[in-house]
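Module 6 notes. Inverse folding takes a fixed backbone as the condition and produces residue identities as the prediction. Think of it as a translation problem where the source language is geometry and the target language is the twenty amino acids. Below is one complete input and output pair. Work through it position by position during the lab.
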């Protein structure tokens, strides 16, 4: 089982939108996909049509007392299941920090899913605490949406520094420009001459698009209701660049 994490220090940069659309593209390509919504807001699960949050606490999950597998729900999409978010996920950092081996927590929790799934996608809440460190270690790829602005690039630098500091090893951090708006001079300039931290970025990015916003109306991945849209094509290209 491969594990991709959608992660950023920042909120509102397009992690959840990318998690949902990448999960859909992967399932369509034949992978057996589980999307674990680690965010207490539960937006990823909601976009996939799942109404019921998982009533679990981070404490019980981290302690191993909660059998996570029983919370997995099928979605209306073939080969795509979801482990919904839970309001009880608000204190991941404190709970993981208190564990005996904080960095190994996520790795241990996801291991059983490798029997059933070929790809796990983790949709992370923003932040750079114990959860992030554990995710960075568990994931094969950490995919970081970066809005083409100096602040967003600074957040990426912090993540890269964190990865170096924590020596999380094999993890590959893959940034991509997200919510890019070429009508804006600043966005255009950063896209045209990206800084060194973006050099690992695949040659694809996701533009600012109304179709992505409309995911909230349809509660579905873009490709299901706007298959020919640029946004659908860009998420597919992003998936292909990662696969
Ligand atoms: N490419 C995009 N174009 C336009 N709106 C977007 C795009 N990506 C995300 N959004 C919108 O921005 C908001 C934040 O996106 P989201 O994926 O939830 O970010 P995060 O998970 O990083 O907090 C949402 O309202 C979403 O619909
Ligand atoms: Mg999110």
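Target side of the pair, the amino acids:
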């Amino acid at each position: 089982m491969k594990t991709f994490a959608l992660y950023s220090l920042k909120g509102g940069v397009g992690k959840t939108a990318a998690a949902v659309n990448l999960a859909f593209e992967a399932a369509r390509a034949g992978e057996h996909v589980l999307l674990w919504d680690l965010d207490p807001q539960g937006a990823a699960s909601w976009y996939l049509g799942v109404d019921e949050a998982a009533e679990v606490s981070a404490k019980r999950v981290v302690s191993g007392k909660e059998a996570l597998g029983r919370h997995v729900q099928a979605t209306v999409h073939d080969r795509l299941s979801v482990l919904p978010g839970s309001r009880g996920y608000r204190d991941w950092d404190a709970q993981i920090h208190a564990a005996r081996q904080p960095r190994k927590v996520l790795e241990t929790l996801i291991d059983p899913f490798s029997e059933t799934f070929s790809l796990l996608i983790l949709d992370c809440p923003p932040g750079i605490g114990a959860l992030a460190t554990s995710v960075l270690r568990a994931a094969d790829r950490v995919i970081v949406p970066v809005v083409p602005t100096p602040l967003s690039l600074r957040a990426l630098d912090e993540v890269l520094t964190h990865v170096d500091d924590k020596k999380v090893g094999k993890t590959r951090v893959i940034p991509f420009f997200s919510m890019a708006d070429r009508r804006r001079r600043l966005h255009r300039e950063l896209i045209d001459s990206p800084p060194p931290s973006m050099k690992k970025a695949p040659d694809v990015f996701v533009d600012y698009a109304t179709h992505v916003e409309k995911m909230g109306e349809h509660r579905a991945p873009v490709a299901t209701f706007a298959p020919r849209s640029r946004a659908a094509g860009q998420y597919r290209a992003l998936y292909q660049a990662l696969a």
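Reference fact for the lab report: The pocket of magnesium ion (ligand 2) is lined by residues 15-16, 39, 43, 123 (CB under 6 Å).
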